[in-house]
Design brief:
Blueprint (H helix, E strand, L loop, with lengths): L1 H16 L1 H25 L6 H25 L1 H9 L2 H5 L5 H21 L3 H6 L7 H28 L3 H17 L8 H10 L6 H4 L5 H25 L3
Amino acid sequence: MRNILAVCTKELYTYFVSPIAYFVCFVFTAISGFLFSIMLITTSGQQAGTGTQVMGTIFGNMAIILLFFIPVLTMKLFAEERKSGTIELLLTSPITDGQVVLGKFLASWTLLLIMLALTLFFPLLARRFGPLDGGVLLSGYFGVILIGSSFLALGLLMSSMCKNQLVAALTSFGILITLWVIGSLSSQYGAVGEFLSYLSLLEHYDDFTRGVILLKDVIYHLSFTGVCLFATFKSLESSKWR
């Protein structure tokens, strides 16, 4: 655990000594806040359920924004090490590959939590315009954390397989956007469509924004995250034999 925290601390330091963390946090909060203000304006004339409706929509928007921003957070985690040649030093240090993967993932996950923490004033404002369902609030943030973890794990995997940060970011985004929209094919291809729908990230996220937490959705995101982290570990392990 000490080694994992050491890697995590080092990566967080790298994030915050560069403009990346500040830029991503600022732009994420700014865009989310802009969409939040628009929702408040458009629903201000309604009576019941205004706060709940606004937050449900904002949680959906947050996931879409993260779809664009998380590849930026993860692109450097391994790709920069490969490009600079420090990956060999990292892999031969007295730290296991699994600890390296978990430490880097924990660092990016911590930054994700910081980004979400900056939006906690949204519910406080939403309550002033109408009733707010606590269930929607809790399930919404829980869902954003789960889908954000899935995004981070995939981005980490792509970064471990690429030497160029831009290639890692674009590959991550391409795969994520494909998994996001693939559920729209479910009604056109029968049994194959149902399988594609199960793979869809969106299909396993929408219920969270409505205040519903289903075990199958939680298992999906935890499994997706675990598989990607395991694949990242194997990618690092194979690097020792190249």
